[in-house]
Amino acid sequence: MSGYAVKVQGGSAKVVDIKTGGIKRTVSGGILSAQVLGDMVQVTDKNGRVRVIEIKTGAVKRSL
Fold this sequence. Notes:
Layout: E1 4-9, E2 12-17, E3 23-28, E4 31-37, E5 40-45, E6 50-54, E7 60-63
């Protein structure tokens, strides 16, 4: 099982594999906050838009 952590810095979110320390996904575009939800990451941008993104593929699963 993979574990992920996310860091928001400079308007982008970097998703990191906890085991290897490697960056698995970078999401940019004025990101203010991010949260890992299993194999997905939820990001909120400066306009209040929320996106749920699959970490492995980068596919947007839901946009609110």
